[in-house]
Amino acid sequence: MNRARQAFRAARRVLVITGAGISAESGIPTFRGEGGLWKGFDATQLATPQAFDGDPELVWEWYRWRKQICNEASPNPGHRAVAEMEHREGDFLLLTQNVDGLHPRAGSKKLVEIHGCIDQARCTRCASVFGVPASEGMPRCSDCGALARPHILWFGESYWAGTLDRGIAFARQADFCLVVGTSGMVWAPSAVALEAKQQGAFLVDVNPEQSQISSYADAWLAGPAGAILPELLAEVPE
Ligand code: BJW
Ligand code: ZN
């Protein structure tokens, strides 16, 4: 913790990468591990273009169920600590894999929601993006009437312009990279963290369990984000 804190204090360009674990303490289930299943399905079965083509109603039902959980949840001390980091001097970027909207609700502004946002839908024909309507059922595009899909990046889909590329460009300049609450199983966010490390950043992993990132990290802070992140920010008397 002390080495991580010192590196953070000295840093001029800070990159934070978050995953589902940072929202676990807000009551949102993670993808892998306990509680990661819904009606016998896991994310790899439903978060795909093939699943949507085969049964759009089922996929929309899953996302509406998750949207409700996300909307009812509140940001926790981990999200608030990340928002606070942005206000230090120097450059900052938050790259989140989470679609739950808790980072912006905690006050984060310099952020990229690399996998999209659960409150948004996108037209399958004209690609227009709009808020998911409150009414049940499958949303239709308000511009052209075609079926809309969740505005979420699914497995096998390429990262949208201005998301991954922005993260990689920032990672190459970062001198501190903080990874929080991700298993690191999904490419490409884990690759962004390793790129930062390779280009000289001090890499910290915050996760109660060993992740794919932990063994590459300069410091693995094993514990829940809601406790560890405020501690990382706290002033300590010399
Ligand atoms: C705590 C905690 C607490 C608990 N505090 N921590 C073979 C090899 C390599 C790559 C590939 C491959 N085959 C395919 C790929 C590429 C694929 C991929 O990476 N697959 C791997 C799973 C193998 N990636 C893609 O397809 C991506 N696109 C892409 O690569 O485009 C180029 C390309 C195109 C075509 C072919 C090949 C390449 C797109 C990925 C999109 C991911 N989308 C999802 C679902 C949509 C979003 C949604 O519906 O919400 O995003 S998948 C799901 O995983 C979700 C998450 O954002 C993402 C990451 O999960 P995350 O956040 O890490 O959660 P968990 O549950 O895994 O981990 C939680 C962690 O928290 C755990 O470690 C806990 O210990 C910890 N934790 N409590 C701190 N209190
Ligand atoms: Zn349309």
Layout: helices, strands, pairs:
Elements: H1 2-10, E1 13-18, H2 43-46, H3 49-54, H4 56-72, H5 77-85, E2 91-96, H6 102-106, E3 111-113, E4 116-123, E5 129-131, E6 148-152, H7 164-173, E7 176-180, H8 189-198, E8 202-206, E9 219-221, H9 225-233
Parallel strand pairs: 1-2, 1-7, 2-3, 7-8, 8-9
Antiparallel strand pairs: 4-5, 4-6
Helix pairs in contact: 5-9, 7-8
Bound molecules: ligand BJW and zinc ion.
What is the string of helix and strand elements?
HEHHHHEHEEEEHEHEEH
Count of individual domains: 2
Please name the CATH architecture of the largest domain.
Answer: 3-Layer(aba) Sandwich
Side-by-side strand order of the widest sheet: 3-2-1-7-8-9
Q: Distance N terminus to C terminus?
A: 14 Å
Radius of gyration: 18 Å
At the first level of CATH, the class of the largest domain is Alpha Beta
* Helix content class: 25-40%
Number of DSSP E strands: 9
Which structural class should the secondary elements be placed in? Answer: alpha/beta
Task: Give average pLDDT, whole number.
Answer: 94
**What would you call the shape?**
globular
Task: Give structural notes.
Helix 5 packs parallel to helix 9 (225-233) and helix 7 (164-173) runs parallel beside helix 8. A 6-stranded parallel β-sheet has the order 3-2-1-7-8-9, with helices on both faces. The protein has a 3-stranded antiparallel β-sheet with strand order 5-4-6. The protein has helices spanning 2-10, 43-46, 49-54, 56-72, 77-85, 102-106, 164-173, 189-198, 225-233, and strands at 13-18, 91-96, 111-113, 116-123, 129-131, 148-152, 176-180, 202-206, 219-221. The chain is 33% helix and 18% strand. The protein folds into 2 domains: 2-27 and 75-115 and 159-233, Rossmann fold (3-Layer(aba) Sandwich), CATH 3.40.50.1220; 34-72 and 123-152, SIR2/SIRT2 'Small Domain'. By secondary structure, the protein is α/β, with parallel strands linked by helices. The radius of gyration is 18 Å and the shape is globular. The protein binds ligand BJW and zinc ion. Ligand BJW binds next to loops.
